[in-house]
Amino acid sequence: MDRRPQRPRKRAAGWRASARARVALITALGAVVAPASAAPVWVAIPAGKVRPLIRVSEEPKADAQPVAPFRLAARPVTNGEFLAFARAHPRWQRGAVPALLAEGGYLARWAGPTTPGPRAPLDAPVVEISWFAARAYCEAHGGRLPTEAEWERAAMAGQTHPDGRDEPGYRARILGWYAERQPDPLPAVGQGPANYLGVFDLHALVWEWVDDFGATLVTADAREAGDGPSAAFCAGGALAATDPADYAAFMRAAFRSSLKGRHTVRNLGFRCAADALALASPRAHQGGTP
């Protein structure tokens, strides 16, 4: 009589099902941690002028700041793209960045230094990134952070007009997003319509770093020292504003002026910019480096 233990048929079937489930889990985990392509889609932004927040002269048009042609990434940098960068540059992984370059909340919603996890989907914008890390990412891809004037130049476009101020509902849409509670996790980039220039998510999803983030409003220390324009504060700011109705612009300027380079904010991400190509280019094109 054969006394070898016989595996019940149900148990064998259960083991095979369990094995298939483990394979599926490993495959799913691999998809979660696999880095996405970091090659940006560049949008060519034509030259233009940006109206300053605070009027300096009696003629507002005289204060308009010219902006040279440049290129801007069509979408904010995602968790998947930053994951690929962090793996290639370990010094920018969570836990490795010096406190001088990023505060303790750096990539706090990631599950680990190289694992974004369920709260940071690969196609969602990366947030809790310091200015130093954002600059390093853009430089590694041959670009840079946009200046405030460049960002505002691209963001002034509406959905159907080159200047959103000529478009009904433009300001209401922006303020509506500012008033909304941020979802967790964040949704994927590029889900809404692009603006007139072909750029996504400038007034939705997350706030974004600019290279000269503290340039619009001066600090209290500068004001006390007599180095800054008093018109940038309180009632003086309202009186000297080029457009008192553009409350969203004041909110952006106030937020940027509150930042320091090491700050990591739960709804602050970034996108890269680059100088314009010497030759004319289509509105958007694919490229790893400018």
Work out the count of structural domains.
1
- Going across the biggest sheet, name each strand in turn: 7-4-1-8
CATH third-tier fold name: paralog of FGE (formylglycine-generating enzyme)
What is the CATH architecture annotation? Alpha-Beta Complex
Question: What fraction, in percent, of the residue positions are helical?
Answer: 25-40%
Structural class: alpha+beta
- The CATH class is identified as Alpha Beta
Low-confidence stretches: 1-37, 218-239, 278-290
Q: Count of helices?
A: 8
Q: Main β-sheet, in a few words?
A: 4 strands, antiparallel
Report the C-alpha radius of gyration, rounded.
24 Å
Strand content: 5-15%
Q: What global shape is seen?
A: globular
What is the first-to-last residue Cα distance? 77 Å
Number of strands: 8
Query: What's the mean pLDDT score?
Result: 79
Order of helices and strands: HEEEEHHHHEHHHEEE
